[in-house]
Amino acid sequence: MILKKLLLITIVLCSTIGFSQEIWGYLPIEISNDFPGHGAICPIDENVVHVVSDGGFFYKTDDGGETWTTFNSGVNVFFLDLDFDGAQNGYAVGSEGEILKTDNAGQTWAALSSGTTEALVSVAVNTENSIWAVGNNGIILHSTNGGNSWTSNTALTTENLNDIKFKNENIGYIAGDNGVLFYTENGGIDWEALQIPSTNDLFSISLTGDFIYLIAGDGESFDSEFGFSGNFLFKSDNNSDWIFHDLTPSEHGPADISFISQDYGFAVNSAKTVSGRCFVYIEKTENSGETWEYSLNEETNVANCHANSGYAKVEFPSENVGYALVGKTIFKTPYNSAGVEDFNKKNVFTIFPNPTENGNFTLKFDIPDLEGFSIEVIDVNGRKLYVKADLMKNNHILVPNISEGIYFVNLLKNGKILTSQKLVKKD
Predict the structure, then answer these.
(1) Is 2-334 in CATH node 2.130.10.10?
(2) Is pTM beyond 0.90 here?
(3) CATH classification of 341-425, choosing from 2.60.40.10, 3.60.21.10, 3.40.50.920, 3.40.50.720?
(4) How far is residue 137's CA from residue 122's CA, in Å, rounded to a whole number?
């Protein structure tokens, strides 16, 4: 999306990122997704977000996720990616060569003739009428007239192509299996093969500042609990000198990556255990990928996981707000910025004393029925320090051994976060 790419460039040039208190929460929508893990999310800005899922369902919010509208295209395939050239024109690609377009900001979507039945995995708009799509068996499609017609290029490779991104109208990258990576500096007129020190599959591209970041998957490493794992990050600022980083702490391999500055980035994944439990992992780095820590690490609805593989998407339309699509659930950070404001206005619970001096405080609820509700206390990095169910109108809480700083008390209903309040600990 042109607007999205310009926003990111502006952020790098003009801002210093200090996004250290992100809290990921669930937005009030469940995606119609019969085969979780396929779909895409595309934020236009902090408030306008488009989503596509399996079965050709499209979703849109204009208020940061508080309310949503739905459109059924009637095209029942796996949709894998989505991109916009601004507010009005958007494109979605699917598993059997499908390309759908909207020219009215997602109100309706119409099918385009792609000329292929190969799975199209990624789509990118680099100018208003110039649209690119890539997919299986080296297929590269290009339209110069807003999708009315497409030219096909299969001469570069026979490997599956997994992602295409443009930094601006001229500079772009295509990543694929077995370490395949292509680069253009003239808007796709010519593509140059780049060499990375790996033959691992390349899943996701993120471009910010002078850097290109790549997720590489080690398909030779199989974990009986979580499936394929052992994913890595490669980065370069000159297309030749590549630096390798291990994507720890998660052992299960992120599916998508998004950097909001040269230093600050996020990776997202879901994993299903052999016992059927589903976990969501969102990792962050503040040093250009050298080290990673959890921004979110929690069990979620099993509908968010597919088989033993992690499929997820994460996008930041600005340095302030991020969205992630995992299975049937949409996450947002900062969580308090949308989706819970009406709930907060009801003052459903109070904390006193706040600040607390010793980790002792009382929670008082103004909710008629507390069945199914629980609370958790987390730090600014999303680590859970305290959990309590079986709530009463008045609850005495002790969170031992916490140091001076800011914490968050989350209120959950049936495992989903509804609202949150800040707790201050003073010595």
Answers:
(1) yes
(2) no
(3) 2.60.40.10
(4) 13
